[in-house]
Amino acid sequence: MIEDATATARRKKPQAPVDRVRRELFHEGLCGQVMHTGPYSSEPDTIDRLHSFLGGTAHTIAGRHHEIYLSNPNRTAPEKMKTIIRYPVTPTT
Fold first, then answer.
1. Which string of b and e fits 14-47 if b means at least 16 CB within 10 Å?
2. What is the rounded CA–CA span in Å between residue 39 and residue 87?
C-alpha cells in the first residue's frame, strides 16, 4: 500500500518530496495529548502547557513526543494550522 501511494504521489506531483515521508508504528498505550492550533513556531508554549497538565496528574512522561499534522502547510494559514502533540505516559504509583 505504501509503495502504491508513493508511486501515485510521484506520478501526480513529481516535485513532491515523497522520499522524506516515512511510516512508523507506535505502541505507546496511554498518552497525554493536546491539540495545538497555530504556527509550528508557537508549539513550545503548547508543549509547556501539556507538561504542566501532566505534572498535575498521577502520570509521568514515558518517552519522546510525536506530532500528528492535520493541516496542509501549503494550503492553511499559519494561525489556523492544527497539530496533535502526543506523549506516552505511565501512571505513577
1. eeeeeeeeeeeeeeeeebbbbebebeeeebeebb
2. 20
Using CB atoms within 10 Å of the CB of residue 89, give its burial: 0 to 12 exposed, 13 to 18 middle, 19+ buried: buried
CB within 8 Å of 10: residues ≥ 6 apart = 16, 18
Q: Residue length, the chain?
A: 93
pLDDT of the chain, 93 residues: tens digit per residue: 878 888 888 888 888 788 777 777 878 789 999 999 999 999 999 999 999 999 999 999 999 999 999 999 999 999 999 999 999 999 987
Environment class of 75 (CB within 10 Å of its CB; exposed 0-12, middle 13-18, buried 19+): exposed
Q: Are 60 and 29 contacting, i.e. CB atoms less than 8 angstroms apart?
A: no
The grid coordinates of residue 75 equal 494550503
Distance CA 30, CA 56 (A): 16
